[in-house]
Task: inverse folding
């Protein structure tokens, strides 16, 4: 008799595929964020776009948005802080001259 190859998937392989299908992209999870609002520069809503998907985030209220949008906003806030620190440093050096 010829040996037939078993073409049925192994139990471990099936479980692994199911596990991978159940895993959600953490960037698609909703997180709560609240953006600062004042009557000056920070009073309008914020437009955020990531890979062709976008949203508008209201200021002054806690809102739930996808983590990928929150990450972009947080990165921009960090960059703004670094820029302000650099401007302050350069301004103080120029004043010393």
Result:
């Amino acid at each position: 008799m010829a040996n037939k190859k078993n073409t049925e998937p192994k139990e471990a392989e099936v479980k692994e595929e199911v596990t991978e299908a159940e895993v959600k992209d953490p960037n698609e999870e909703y997180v709560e964020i609240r953006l600062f609002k004042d009557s000056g520069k920070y009073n309008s809503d914020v437009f955020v776009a990531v890979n062709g998907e976008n949203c508008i985030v209201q200021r002054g209220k806690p809102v739930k948005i996808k983590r990928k949008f929150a990450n972009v906003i947080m990165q921009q806030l960090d960059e703004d802080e670094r820029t302000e620190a650099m401007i302050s440093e350069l301004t103080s050096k120029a004043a010393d001259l």
